[in-house]
Design goal:
Radius of gyration: 21 Å
Number of strands: 0
Distance between the termini: 90 Å
CATH topology of one domain: 434 Repressor (Amino-terminal Domain)
Mean pLDDT: 82
Low-confidence stretches: none
CATH architecture of one domain: Orthogonal Bundle
Length: 105
């Protein structure tokens, strides 16, 4: 009995970007691509699983900022990625100079 093998593309892993650097759309795109390829998932696998078009997934992995956030979040959740929101502002209890804003003239 002959077993027919389907030919498919082999998913080549890509490196995860340095996630300690400041956030950018390109960094997010690289992280999504690295996670997907590290899981050996093709673009077709992910787009089919999420009912997203392959072109939309390609845009996400290229860092296209016109993609809806909900679609980016769907892909991230599927791949096991998440966001953390961090404020650049000083916390209310931290005062680096010891001088409040009211003391400036």
């Amino acid at each position: 009995m002959l077993v027919k093998q389907t030919l498919g593309r082999v998913v080549k892993s890509t490196n995860m970007p340095d996630l300690t650097k400041s956030f950018s759309p390109e960094q997010l795109a690289k992280a999504i691509t690295a996670k997907r390829t590290g899981m050996k998932l093709t673009l077709v696998n992910v787009s089919a699983a999420l009912s997203l078009s392959k072109p939309t997934l390609i845009k996400i992995e290229k860092g296209d900022t016109s993609v809806k956030l909900v679609n980016i979040l769907k892909v991230m959740e599927y791949l096991g990625l998440s966001f953390s929101i961090v404020s650049d502002e000083l916390t209310p209890n931290s005062n680096t100079t010891g001088v409040s804003d009211e003391e400036w003239y």
